[in-house]
Amino acid sequence: MAEATTPISDPYAFLNIVKNPDGSITRDLTNFPCAAATPDPTPENPAVSKDLPVNQSKSTWLRLYLPSSAVNDGVSSQKLPLVVYYHGGGFILCSVDMQPFHDFCSEMARDLNAIVVSPSYRLAPEHRLPAAYDDGMEALEWIKTSDDEWIKSHADFSKVFLMGTSAGGNLAYNVGLRSADSVSDLNPLQIRGLILHHPFFGGEERCGSEIRLVNDQVCPPIVTDVMWDLSLPVGVDRDHEYSNPTVGDGSEDLEKFGRLRWKVMMIGGEDDPMIDRQRDVAKLMKKRGVELVEHYTVGHVHGAEIGEPSKRKTLFLSIKNFISSLL
């Protein structure tokens, strides 16, 4: 249930984190089981996967997913779309190999018939924004120069999509802005669109859905306030452009989305306290000439399809239709 009568009183306890005197946090990962990569095709694996280093000095890496059907077909003349997927966690929690994200990406690779690349990124507050955006861009650089056999044999660099859930959706949006300003540098990667799944946005003044869902039990405003406090640059508030893309009428680079003919899919849930912010960002993008597909689902809480596998099929079908419209 998205709304409850009992408010969250201690956001740090809710997140299972403790703030340390040096500004770092201690994370209790007991409730975050991880999954190993699955490099060998088996009947129960929708996709094979493997882990590869990106930048050892930053301890960043990625998990690469290839549909099991592509492995069975061997090297095919038909290459697959490439989806770069950034995980969620409010910029302070979670990892690529968390079981729900691993399962989500594995099923997505199968259902979209696409290669999925899920890069890690450094977490705040130890590494505040824009560190995650820097790492997101570095992952694209890694992909374009990779000599990995799966990528060389199966990835269609002319069909690249940036996607993320929650903080990962915010990351995909900001990596998209940077990429729009450096298209030639990413060649031969050609981004065709962005898929923003329940993107994590904020602001100083409470929006309507934050007021309506103030006691939400999944991602209440009192908790997201702490996430922003720990992840934004020191000294700024939630109306910073990283958290509130609508401030100052948005980034000038937004108009480049339209000129590049990039299309954006905004996915949200009506029981997510951030739904009104997501709609406001969608409205801004349309105002700036960006072609947009909006997909909002009644009864869905923040990140619903990550925690509820039964909801994924419908989501992936919508994303597959979106991708097909651009190919």
Automatic annotation (TrEMBL):
Entries under Pfam families matching the protein: Abhydrolase_3 (PF07859)
GO BP terms in the entry: regulation of secondary shoot formation; strigolactone metabolic process
Residues in Alpha/beta hydrolase fold-3 domain copies: 83-303
InterPro entries per the UniProt record, alphabetical: AB_hydrolase_3, AB_hydrolase_fold, Carboxylest/Gibb_receptor
A GO MF term: 4-hydroxyphenylacetate decarboxylase activity
Family: Belongs to the 'GDXG' lipolytic enzyme family.
UniProt-recorded name of the protein: Alpha/beta hydrolase fold-3 domain-containing protein
Gene source species: Arabidopsis lyrata subsp. lyrata
